[in-house]
Amino acid sequence: MSESPLHMHRLPLPPGPRGYPLIGNVLDMRVERPWLTYFQWGKQFGDVVHISALGQSIVILNSAKAISDLLDRRSAVYSDRPRMVMAGELVGYANSPIMISSGPRHREFRRLFSEVLNPRKVEEWRPLQEQKVEVLVKGFMEAPEAFREHIRRYVASLVFEISHGHNLKAQDDPLIRMAEEVDRDWSQLIIPGAYAVLDVFPFLQHVPEWAGFTFKKEARNYKKRLDESIDWPYQQVKDQIAAGTARPSFTASLIERKQNPTKEDEFTFKWTSGIFYTGTENIDLRSVSSLASFILAMALNPAIDRILILDGSHSERRPTFQDRRDLPYVECLIKEVYRWNPVGPISVPHRLGKDTDDEYRGWRIPSGSVVIANSWGVMHDAGLYPSPFEFLPERYLLDSNTNSSDQMNPDPRKFAFGYGRRVCPGQLLIDDTIYIAVVTILALFDIGPLESEEPRYTPNIISHPGPFACNITPRSR
User: Fold this and answer.
1) Exposure pattern of 100-123 as b/e (b: 16+ CB <10 Å)?
2) Which position among 183, 213, 393, 475 has the lowest Cβ density within 10 Å, counted as fewest Cβ atoms?
3) Are strands 445-450 and 470-474 parallel, antiparallel or unpaired?
4) At what angle do helices 147-164 and 427-444 cross, to 10 degrees?
5) Helix 328-340 vs helix 427-444: angle between axes, to the nearest 10 degrees?
């Protein structure tokens, strides 16, 4: 960081696979499950890999140390986001908290998030979470084969109650459908390399739709759904406040703080409340995907259930948040769910600031480089997590003297929720939402065995298990 520009320019780039003339490694970027490709590159070239795509430098980090050194310790210069013309400018995610550039508006988003997602406030939501988990219990009792739909409704009922004071009436509630649509759209928009030509030649965004470019029609449809998902729930609360029928919610508290909000105020309030259900880091998506992985893990590992019974997790009384400290194996189980098949196998890309190159381990990282943290690769590093492809909750029960956070089996939460100034603001609420669902399911239901083929996980940046069937039965009347 302190080297002269001339000296910096003489430093080599990090190693990486050879690309083609002009296009570089564009073809390497357009692959399913890119984290697996990055993982193999890490074995071949080392934990810091450099590639280029149409002249854009891309640095891939495959180790906990490299991620910590750059994205955490140097977060002041690595906290920006890359320009994504399709997702950001044409569709509108450039305005969102997840994609907005570092600066005053991003800081204001984070400040508002802290009002509803700080540790004290999250603790206040726990009675509501214990109440909403009844949605899950009722669904599992009545139609256990539809467990994914019940998980979705449980999480959505909690999320929209907190964010907009909305009480879900049915499984096909329009807000659930809306959240599912924008989740699907976002997962398509952020496929690495999907719209690389637009990022390199941004002037193409101004080409008229009649010219035959399919991305223009796609962008229009994506944008329409995104705008509706941000505007409609916000306007619903605004109308309820005017009519005197609004229920307490985060969005209502934002609206009521200013009698005459400016356009900038309303813009900020809409996007702040949207963090609950839009983008990779949204609370709804991460909770649903993690709980689906939990069900799959239990169906594949029936022996875990016997350990839990011996651990005393099942009793005549329904477990609560107050029991969490007394359920160490359950805590290990949740950690392993985060690690085994993470919802975000690679983090949303960061970008090094444009002011100057950076130096790391004698390599030059060009200014403006896109930096991708391969979280999946770290959580499947056998040096950190022995037998990384096995689901082993007991790995976190090792003696604390040999299991320090810097050595074996560290808490995977530090890799599952993003890095530096871009860490997911809702991680505490997500963790609580997952805990109360997991401990309730374990107390009331037997899961497994798997009644279908083991599913593959979806291949994009947002990853969750494909369809599968398993046996879910009540433990007792």
Assistant:
1) bebeebbebbbebbeebbeeeebe
2) 475
3) antiparallel
4) 140
5) 120
Structure tokens at 292: 């689906």
* Helix extents (H) in 341-400: 375-379
Q: How far apart, in whole angstroms, are the C-alpha atoms of residue 100 and residue 331?
A: 34
Q: Which two tokens stand for residue 385?
A: 């997590």
Please give the span between the terminal C-alpha atoms of the chain, in angstroms, as a whole number.
65
303 touches 475 (CB < 8 A): no
Pick the closest to residue 300 from 117, 468, 441 (CA basis): 468
Task: Provide the residue type at 412 as one letter.
Answer: P
**Dist. CA 157–CA 288, nearest whole Å:** 12
For the chain, give the secondary structure using H, E and C.
CCCCHHHHHHCCCCCCCCCECCCECHHHHCCCCHHHHHHHHHHHHCCEEEEEECCEEEEEECCHHHHHHHHHCCHHHHCECCCCHHHHHHHCHHHCCCCCCCCHHHHHHHHHHHHHHCHHHHHHCHHHHHHHHHHHHHHHHHCHHHHHHHHHHHHHHHHHHHHHCCCCCCCCCHHHHHHHHHHHHHHHHCCCCCCHHHHHCHHHHHCCHHHCCHHHHHHHHHHHHHHHHHHHHHHHHHHHHHHCCCCCCHHHHHHHCCCCCCHHHHHHHHHHHHCCCCCCCCHHHHHHHHHHHHHHHHHHCCHHHHHHHHCCCCCCCCCCHHHHHHCHHHHHHHHHHHHHCCCCCCCCCEECCCCCCEEECCEEECCCCEEEECHHHHHCCCCCCCCCCCCCHHHHHCCCCCCCCCCCCCCCHHHHCCCHHHCCCCHHHHHHHHHHHHHHHHHHEEEEEECCCCCCECCCCCCCECCCCEEEEECCC
pLDDT in tens, 99-139: 888 888 888 998 998 888 899 999 999 999 999 999 899 99
- At 164, which amino acid appears? H
pTM of the model: 0.91
Contact 391, 297 (CB under 8 A): yes
Please tell me the distance from the alpha carbon of residue 407 to that of residue 384, in angstroms, as a whole number.
6
Q: What is the DSSP letter of 155?
A: H
424 is in an annotated binding site: yes
**CB neighbour list of residue 58: distance below 8 Å, 6 or more residues apart:** 25, 29, 50, 51, 52, 369, 370, 371, 372
pLDDT (tens digit, 9 = 90+) per residue, 381-407?
999 999 999 999 999 987 444 545 457
What domains does the chain contain, in order, with CATH numbers? 5-474 (1.10.630.10)
Residue 4 has pLDDT above 70, yes or no: no
